[in-house]
Amino acid sequence: MGTKWAEAILVLCCSLLTIHVHGNNASPKAITKASLLLHRQKRPYAQSPALELASKLASSSVAASSSPLVYHVTSYGADPTGKADSTDAILGAISDALKGPGNGFLMEGIVNLGGARVDLDGGNYLISRPLQFPVAGKGNLLIHGGSLKASQDFPNDGYLIDLSPASKNGSGYNYEFVTLRDLLLDSGFRGGGIQVVDSLRTNIDNCYITRFNTTGISVQGGHETYIRYTYLGQRITAGGDPNERSFSGTAIVLSGNDNSVTEVVIFSAAVGIMILGQANLISGVHCYNKATGFGGTGIYLKTPGLTQTRIVNSYLDFTGIVAEDPVQLTISGCFFLGDAYVVLKSVKGVASGVNIVDNMFAGSDKGIDIVQLDGGFNQVDQVVIDKNSVKGMKLKATVARGSAERNGNGTTTSWIADFSSVLVFPNLIKQVQYTFITDGSSFPVHALRNVSGNKVLVQSDIEVPASVYVTADQGGHFFS
Ligand SMILES: *[C@@H]1O[C@H](CO)[C@@H](O)[C@H](O)[C@H]1NC(C)=O
Ligand SMILES: *[C@@H]1O[C@H](CO)[C@@H](O)[C@H](O)[C@H]1NC(C)=O
Ligand SMILES: *[C@@H]1O[C@H](CO)[C@@H](O)[C@H](O)[C@H]1NC(C)=O
Ligand SMILES: *[C@@H]1O[C@H](CO)[C@@H](O)[C@H](O)[C@H]1NC(C)=O
C-alpha cells in the first residue's frame, strides 16, 4: 500500500513539473516523453540531441544550481580556432566543474560530482600552461570532445592535462572516476600529454596523444588507471619514418599498481610502455615505436623483483620487451615481428615465476635468439619459456627434447645430448628424463653419468647398439 501511494505521488509530481515546463496543452504522450527527458538530463552519459540542446540552453547559466552540469569551454571564452590562448578559459570551466554541487561521496573524501562534464565543444585550443586541476577530492567527472595544443612557451616539464592537484587537502586519493575521452593532445614537442597522480579509477579512452617531448601518459601512484582505445606517438608517422633514429620520449609510464593498457597503438617514441609498478595488464597493444635496431624498446619492465605483469595478445613490431629481474611475468599470445625479441636483464640475477609461452616470433633468418639474457642469473625458479612458434629466428627455450641416435649398426657405451644451443640459461639443467632403447641381444646397465654445460651424458656398462632420447628442463617447478 505504502509503495503504491509513493508511486502515485511521484507520478503526480513529475506531471506537474512537466506541465509547468512545457505548457498546459501537452498530451499525455508528450508528458511521458518530457518526463523521460527531465529524468535523463541528470544522467551523465545520455547523448540524445534533445539533451545536447538542453545542455546548450543551460550553458549560458552554468552556475545556476538547477542546470545540467555541462561546462562548455566556449562559454568561458575558449577560442575553438586555436588562435588565442585558451588556458584560462578551460581552467575556468574545469575549476567550476570541480566546484559544482556534490552528490554524496565516492571513496571517503572524494565528492561525487554526479557525472559533470567539461565539454571541449569539438574545438582546437591553444594551451600555454598545464591544465592542472586546482583542488583534490573530486570524482565522477568527464572531460571530452576536442583538441588541445601546447603553445611555443608551454613548459617542458608540464603535461597538457594534469591530474595532480595544485592544492591538496588530506592524504587520500586525489581523484576517483575521472574520464578523459575523445581528445587529441598535441604537446608541440614540449612536455607531455596527461599526468595522473595518486588517483583511483581514471579512464583515458579514445585519445590521440602526440608530439610529446617527455611522456605521453604518466601514471604515478594510485590504482586502476585504464588506458584504452588510444593512439600515442611522438611523431605522426605510420612506420618506416626517416627520423626513426631520433624518436625520443616514452609513450606511457606506469609508476603504480593495478593499471591496464588495452587496445592501444604506440607508433613513435623511444620507449613504448615503461612499467615501474606491480600487477599491471598490457593487452592488445601494438608497439612500433622505435625499432630495437635503432635503440628503442617496446615494453620496458624496470622494477626488479616486483613486476607481476601480464603482457598478452600484443604485437611487438620490430621492437621488443626488456624485463629486469622478472618475478611473476607472463608474456603470452603475443606476436613479435621483424626479429623482435625478449631480453631478461639481470640486476641481482633473479628470474622467478616467468612464463613466456605460446607466442609467435618472425624474423629474417639472421639467427637472432627469441629470448636473450643480459647478464647472469643465479636464482632461476619456475621459468618456463616454451611452446613458442618461431620462423626466421633462433628458438630458445627452458625445456628441450633431443636424442643421441644409434650410430648405424655400430655399438657404443656413451650417448651425449647437447642442448647448449637451445636452452636459455647457460649451464643450467634442473631435471633430466631419458629413454634408452636398444635392440641388441644383451641387456645393459645404463645411467645418467654427467650433466654439464647443458649437455647430458648417458653411459652403459657394455657396448650396445642403442638410441637415447632426452628431455631437459631448466626452470620448472618440481616436487621433491
Ligand atoms: C625536449 O627534451 C629534451 C630532453 O629530453 C630537451 O633537451 C629539449 O630541450 C626538450 N625540448 C624542448 C622544446 O624543451
Ligand atoms: C579541507 O576540506 C575541508 C572539508 O571540505 C574544508 O573544510 C577545509 O577548509 C579544507 N582545507 C583546505 C586547506 O583546503
Ligand atoms: C645393419 O644390419 C642389418 C642386418 O643385421 C643390415 O641389413 C643393414 O644393412 C645394416 N645397416 C648398416 C647401416 O650397416
Ligand atoms: C662432466 O663433464 C664436464 C665437461 O665435460 C667435466 O668437466 C666434468 O668433470 C664431468 N663430471 C664428471 C663427474 O665426470
From TrEMBL:
<feature type="signal peptide">
    <location>
        <begin position="1"/>
        <end position="23"/>
    </location>
</feature>
<keyword id="KW-0732">Signal</keyword>
<dbReference type="InterPro" id="IPR011050">
    <property type="entry name" value="Pectin_lyase_fold/virulence"/>
</dbReference>
<dbReference type="Pfam" id="PF12708">
    <property type="entry name" value="Pect-lyase_RHGA_epim"/>
</dbReference>
<protein>
    <recommendedName>
        <fullName>Rhamnogalacturonase A/B/Epimerase-like pectate lyase domain-containing protein</fullName>
    </recommendedName>
</protein>
<feature type="domain" description="Rhamnogalacturonase A/B/Epimerase-like pectate lyase">
    <location>
        <begin position="73"/>
        <end position="293"/>
    </location>
</feature>
<dbReference type="InterPro" id="IPR039279">
    <property type="entry name" value="QRT3-like"/>
</dbReference>
<dbReference type="InterPro" id="IPR012334">
    <property type="entry name" value="Pectin_lyas_fold"/>
</dbReference>
<dbReference type="InterPro" id="IPR024535">
    <property type="entry name" value="RHGA/B-epi-like_pectate_lyase"/>
</dbReference>
<dbReference type="InterPro" id="IPR006626">
    <property type="entry name" value="PbH1"/>
</dbReference>
